[in-house]
From TrEMBL:
Domain of life: Bacteria
Originating species: Rhodococcus artemisiae
Record key words, sorted: 3Fe-4S, Electron transport, Iron, Iron-sulfur, Metal-binding, Transport
Cofactor: [3Fe-4S] cluster
Keyword Electron transport in annotation: yes
Name of the protein described by the UniProt record: Ferredoxin
InterPro entries: Fe-S_cluster_ET (IPR051269)
Length: 63
């Protein structure tokens, strides 16, 4: 599984990190430090939770 965050859609709400703090690393302004990253199999459920928490729909889960 891979995560892609559309940096243009992200508004820095930080809901992804609130739902899955071990996966979504944010800068001091609340924006994602990494917009593309692989998710280990044991963290896939957290990745989905973080993506669903995004109010802007900026996070895409790629299988």
């Amino acid at each position: 599984m891979r995560i892609h965050i559309d940096a243009l859609q992200c508004e820095g709400h930080g809901m992804c990190a609130a739902a899955a703090p071990d996966l979504y690393d944010l800068n001091d302004d609340g924006y994602a430090n990494s917009t593309d990253f692989d998710v280990p199999p044991e963290s896939e459920e957290q990745a989905d939770s973080g993506a669903l928490a995004c109010p802007m729909g900026a996070i895409k889960v790629l299988h």
